[in-house]
Design brief:
Blueprint: E1 7-10, E2 18-21, E3 25-26, E4 46-51, H1 55-66, E5 70-76, H2 80-90, E6 94-96, H3 99-103, E7 110-113, H4 120-129, E8 133-137, H5 144-157, E9 161-164, H6 171-181, E10 188-196, H7 203-206, H8 212-228, E11 234-240, E12 258-264, E13 270-276, E14 284-291, E15 295-297, E16 307-309, E17 314-316, H9 324-327, H10 329-345, H11 353-372, E18 376-377, H12 378-382, E19 385-389, E20 392-395, H13 420-429, H14 431-440
Parallel strand pairs: 4-5, 4-7, 5-6, 7-8, 8-9, 10-13
Antiparallel strand pairs: 1-2, 3-6, 10-14, 11-12, 11-18, 12-13, 14-15, 16-17, 19-20
Helix pairs in contact: 1-10, 4-5, 5-11, 6-8, 8-11, 13-14
Length: about 450
């Protein structure tokens, strides 16, 4: 899949001489969706490519076209007709059936990876090898060791890596976090999150999807960390099946359609998560934080604010949003624009590879807890990874012996090498960086 396609010499209408891949096509139509934005001449213009023209890919692509100083120049999709249609709709000049055409395009500064999860890690590594910044939908990889390798590949190459955990950009959850940071409700005591889908996915989606913790609860587990502002200590999880009995034949947490987690944070802070694949009353996504001075909570989001008042009913005229793209459309756009801003202004990304790694560790720990019916520390999951080099990692459960010189990591950050980009920013821009220079000289 990642083999570089053959190239042939050719000419484009825009330049006298130009290398053109035989899989790359030029789009004939331009978009009418570009916003009129006064550009800052001091900011550089970033050219980007998008891999994947499914629902999520198109949400990001539309947001990209509206971001100032960012221009999409190529998109890809295995079914090339989808790429062609998207290129025509959004005014993208080139499209292809091959992801590597996007990754190796000399015009491209950054790549949005919106392909199926099984391709993410290799595509991230390929982007790093080609010096491209990366936005990747979660998960980074379906395997913990591959996740570490992909993040380290970006860190070693000095390219930005942002992970799509869109709930961090939802205005409701952002407001809850700001209340915590501003001590509006005092010190946090208890965090509660619920996530209930309108209807269960088909059997084919659940099978091989990684289970309810990695596929569904991972967003809520990440949100507990986002709100707590600290790394968690351990987790207790349980699961059961109530909705679709056909999935009970599946392995691990894939056989659950309902699950609960209790997460322990420093200073005795508790976080509770409940998830269910069916909610008869619509998409149920709520958060609550109890503090020493009060409580803050969010409600579900509705298509409108209309209410009906009758002798037998008083309440919202319509149900909450019944699809995640409707519920979180604004959050997807906001996170896309946030990455665009970090590219244009060359600032750190707001949702890092490490954030994606910790979210996966939390999901894996929950899975293990439910399977073994016990508390599982996140340190235990971190220690299951051994890296002989930053980009060569393996799970110890897949090895018969501990590798020579093995020293278990105790924190997710210990598995990662420092980003060359981050290191450069610290040395040149930050006060701490100047102190480091002073004391190292």
């Amino acid at each position: 899949f990642l083999a570089t396609a053959a190239v042939i010499d050719g000419f484009s209408n825009n330049s006298p001489s130009f290398i053109v891949n035989k899989n790359i096509h030029e789009s004939k139509t331009s978009s009418s969706l570009f916003m009129t934005v006064e550009e800052n001449t001091n900011q550089k213009n970033i050219k980007v490519g998008v891999i994947g023209c499914g629902r999520i890919g198109l949400v990001h692509l539309e947001a990209i076209t509206k971001a100032p100083n960012v221009t999409p120049v190529i998109i890809s999709n295995p079914t090339v007709s989808k790429a062609e249609a998207a290129a025509s709709q959004y005014g993208v000049s080139k499209f292809s059936s091959e992801a590597m055409d996007v990754i190796t395009d000399p015009e491209v500064d950054a790549v949005w990876i919106c392909s199926p999860s099984s391709f993410h890690a290799e595509q991230i590594k390929a982007c790093a090898a080609n010096g491209k910044h990366v936005f990747c939908e979660k998960p980074i990889a379906t395997d913990l060791s591959e996740t570490v390798e992909a993040i380290n590949a970006c860190n070693e190459a000095g390219v930005k890596l942002m992970i799509g955990l869109q709930r961090r950009f939802d205005q409701n959850f952002v407001r809850v976090r700001s209340a915590i940071e501003g001590s509006e409700v005092g010190e946090p005591i208890m965090i509660k999150l619920c996530s209930r889908d309108p209807s269960p996915p088909p059997f084919e989606y659940v099978k091989g999807g990684g289970g309810i913790f990695a596929d569904m609860a991972v967003h809520d587990l990440d949100m507990t960390r986002f709100l707590a502002g600290q790394d968690p200590i351990d987790i207790l999880a349980i699961g059961s099946c109530h909705i679709d009995k056909s999935i009970e034949v599946l392995d691990g947490s894939e056989k659950f359609d309902t699950a609960s987690c209790l997460v322990r944070y420093p200073n005795g802070v508790q976080a509770m998560v409940d998830v269910c694949r069916q909610s008869s009353y619509g998409y149920d996504q709520r958060a609550e934080v109890l503090g020493t001075k009060g409580m803050i909570a969010t409600d579900n989001v509705y298509p409108n604010t209309a209410k009906i008042f009758k002798n037998d009913f008083t309440g919202n005229a319509d149900m909450p949003y019944d699809f995640f793209l409707s519920r979180y459309n604004e959050a997807y756009v906001t996170e896309t624009i946030a990455f665009c801003k970090s590219l244009v202004n060359d600032t750190p990304v707001p949702c890092t590879g490490e954030d994606g790694l910790v979210a996966l560790i939390m999901a894996i720990a929950a899975d293990k807890s439910a399977e073994e019916n016990r508390w599982v520390s996140f340190q235990e999951i971190v220690q299951s990874v051994y890296c002989s080099s930053p980009t060569e990692c393996e799970l110890l459960s897949q090895s018969e012996l501990f590798p020579e010189g093995f020293r278990p990591a105790t924190d997710a950050a210990d598995l990662l090498v420092e980003s060359k980009e981050k290191s450069s920013e610290e040395e040149e821009d930050s006060v701490m960086g100047r102190f480091k220079k002073l004391f190292s000289s």
